[in-house]
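Final report, results section. Input specification for complex C-07:
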Amino acid sequence: MSMRTLPLLFLNLGGEMLYILDQRLRAQNIPGDKARRDEWTEVDRKRVLHDIISTMFNKNFIEELFKPQELYSKKALRTIYDRLAHASIMRLNQASMDKLYDLMTMALKYQVLLCPRPKDVLLVTFNHLDAIKGFIRDNPALVHLVDETSQQLIEAYGGLSAGEFQLIRQTLLTFFQDLHIRVSIFLKDKVQNSNGRFVLPVSGPVPWETEVPGLIRMFDHKGKEVKRTEFRHGGNYIAALKEGSFELYGDRVLKLGTNMYSANRPVETHTSGASKNLASQSQQSIAPNPLAKEELNFLAKLMGGMEIRKPSGPEPGFRLNLFTTDEEEEQAALTRPEELPHEVVNIQATQDQQRNQELARIMGEFEVTDQPRWSASKGDDLLAMMDEL
Amino acid sequence: MFRRERSIPLRGSAAALCNNLSVLQLPVHNLTHFGVVHGPSAQLVSAAPEGVPLAQRQLHAKERAGVSLPLITQVHWCVLPFRILLVLTSHRGIQMYESDGSVMVYWHALDSGDASPVQAVFARGIASSGHFICVGTWSGRVLVFDVPAKGPNIVLSEELAGHLTSVTDIASEHAQEQDCIADMVTADDSGLLCVWRSGPEFKLLTRIPGFGAPCTSVQLWQGIVAAGYGNGQLCLYEASTGTLHAQINAHARAICALDLAPMVGKLLSAAEDTFVHIWKLNRNLKNGCIEVEHCHGECVPDTQVCGARFCDPSGSSLAVTGYDLAEILRFSSV
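Structure output:
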């Protein structure tokens, strides 16, 4: 509904993806001097994060991102993250990519749902960007790139009314509608119920600019207060403490959007929720989707701004597994519901012949091959390492 | 006290919109119709008194070739003197159907002429006033349709200017007494309320300014405007003058729906804080002041409520919808 939602969606999902990859890579960290040639090291981890972040915040890409446009479907948006996740030496097979995307989307759904005010989704975005800067703090050029995006956010959203933010929130919630994948870390923290729905607390501070419920004031024709009564609201709320900062730097106050993964907490999901979810999605797409072509055209234009440096030379891709063991990953791949058939879509000829060729090249790369693209060397020994976790 | 009654299952979950439940009570037929927006589709369900679902229908917004299905913003039954029409608003325009949703009798495409590329274009806010149906739009303009006693010759008769930001909700009531000339109120994203008198030409009587929060839902009862806001506040105003008579810190999150049981002056408010509250309105006969007291509060655990309606004129039963919930929850008082 709102035409301003894509930047918020993309940046926050990207932030969650980085949190998860960072945690996963740290969990497999081998000290540099002890590592074999085919093992993940601290240097590798930093490099993966650096590559993804520099791709995410590429100037051309961000410029396309901020153009007013409708939200893409979950499937379409997923292709962006597929490419982003492979912006570096890291390789994820489809099952791990599925799991990564599930975790990212459920985390952001939780954050959007629990935002006290619609405008606070901006604070969630700043939390993600602040953390991203932390990942690459030793690279001033990259930090500057992220800051420029923050500045664009402030310009694009800083002046919006509460009503416009409410529309943005409703649009985001439409994107996340009917997703009920259970996430272990949420279940453990009791922020998600076993039916996949999030807990909505009825206590704590009220949003900034909201009063604690309970007071009724009545006035006469002249505006003079004539009566004051109280009622029992049923919740257990207290006044808001202070407002988070919407500046480039500042105390955001809100914790939503900060990194909830630490090296000690394994990243798990239950995949039973996922198959149900895809079933309802496929039910929705039974009607022929005339959108697909137009949506992919928009997507291709967006991705055209995304510069992916392909791993060149003899260096193989490093495989990362989002599951605890390789067997689990294989099992997940087998039980993954049948994807809807992908078709190669012909991009309509545009005036800019060169740009069209570039777009066509990008779209050609979207042809799905179900073969997991991994190289043997790092992959096999990851298997051995997984068993130790 | 309210107790949970049997829920009515829905084919699709309710979308996170405001005023996302419409109820048509048909006591003569022992039937109640419910309308809920899912997203690109809206669902109509008919149920018997005990909540037993009887019939189901899905409606879609009219699409433009080659583009995705537009999202529906609201579905609402309009009771007119000689007929009942079901109105559906979307990002494309306004569709009107016979009350059971079986036949579309009228389609109006929205004109997005002077919208900037960043502006979302949609219709939202539906109410009947006499033999008119009024529908709000993204620009703030309110479209007034003249509806004949039967047939499809519905005509756009007027466009009301009064709002500068998107309309959120519209409410109306029969102007019964002579003094009670205000019979329609429109609300918008900035919190502004416009009070109107209907007629061959609608007249703007007064404006009630907002205070920063959108007015998400509005009701009109005996010349009293009840307005729910995005910051959880519920305010009561004298319609003819715009004077504030009551200010209630009612909810901890945005109010998403208000409804009235006009026979008894009961008002319900529902919000994203998971609560539904019932209030009793009345006019103090001595000084004419509007008074309000709280009757009851009900928590719908872990549910971001998006729609709520009374299901009978005495306000002893109500229905509630929640974001992501694929059922209509029902409550009745004990």
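Chain A touches chain B through 61 residues (CB under 8 Å). The two ends of chain A are 44 Å apart (CA to CA). This concludes the modelling results for the funded period.
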